[in-house]
Amino acid sequence: KNEVEQSPQNLTAQEGEFITINCSYSVGISALHWLQQHPGGGIVSLFMLSSGKKKHGRLIATINIQEKHSSLHITASHPRDSAVYICAVTDKLIFGTGTRLQVFP
Amino acid sequence: KAGVTQTPRYLIKTRGQQVTLSCSPISGHRSVSWYQQTPGQGLQFLFEYFSETQRNKGNFPGRFSGRQFSNSRSEMNVSTLELGDSALYLCASSLGTGINQPQHFGDGTRLSIL
């Protein structure tokens, strides 16, 4: 079993839908990163969080340290949100395998 | 402010050769981390450098090495290349050391081994 599991692996949505991507981990951590990777490879760090919730525009990230679970939500999804979303558990430098999101107009 | 710059963007090598990849961090950032991304293994941490010292290392063989210069620019070297080294190599810079810092990624170097 991987130490960092993401679900779903693939996700398709219609423009405007609310999206949720989940990340569960089995190791102790102090913080977790959510990353976005567009086709071509470039990675953008979306959030780094250690507790509670963070919001940036249409993106919301939550983390529950006790339950070892984090979620990334995208409200009012748009085709430009199509990318691979990766969670990373920073203490152990372990990455999830990513969730490939496609949003269709 | 210029972002993280990685050169070259694409590289083709043959088995047994060696390769050097370069990463210029954001001005003022002193930490550079390197990652390997493959379809099978996903993203994996290679090493982190801060103030010219390796601070952290992932689980890769000794063929993978790196260094950091006094201007914070970093190079990564892979010797005796193997087919399995074909990957996207990403570097990320941050202000301070430790992976619990916001990371700023470059666009990567795509290395193909023939």
Quick recap:
The complex is a heterodimer of chains A (105) and B (114). Chain A has 105 residues and is an all-beta fold. Chain A is 0% helix and 58% strand.
Description:
The complex is a heterodimer of chains A (105) and B (114). Chain A is mainly β. Chain A has no helices and eleven strands. By secondary structure, chain B is mainly β. In chain B, 0% of the residues lie in helices and 53% in strands. Chain B is built from no helices and eleven strands. In chain B, the strands form two sheets. In chain B, strands 2, 4, 5, 6, 9, 10 and 11 form a seven-stranded mixed beta sheet that branches. In chain B, strands 1-3-8-7 form a four-stranded antiparallel beta sheet, with no helix packed on it. Chain B starts with a strand and ends with a strand. In chain B, 37% of the residues are buried. The chains are: A mainly beta (105), B mainly beta (114). At the A-B interface, β5 and β10 of A face β5, β9 and β10 of B.
Average pLDDT taken over every residue of chain A: 93
How large is the count of helical segments of chain A? 0
Shape of chain A: globular
Which blocks of ≥5 consecutive residues of chain A have pLDDT under 50? none
- Biggest interface, and residues per chain? A-B, 21 and 21 residues
Number of helices of chain B: 0
Mean pLDDT across all residues of chain B, rounded?
93
Please summarize the sheet with the most strands of chain A.
Answer: 6 strands, mixed
Q: How large a portion of the residues of chain A is in β-strands, by DSSP E?
A: over 45%
Taking the sheet with the most strands of chain B, its summary is:
7 strands, mixed
Q: Give the overall silhouette of chain B.
A: globular
Task: Please tally the β strands of chain A and state the result.
Answer: 11
| N-to-C CA distance of chain A | 36 Å
Percent in helix of chain B = under 10%
Low-pLDDT runs of chain B: none
Oligomer: heterodimer
CA gyration radius of chain B, whole angstroms: 13 Å
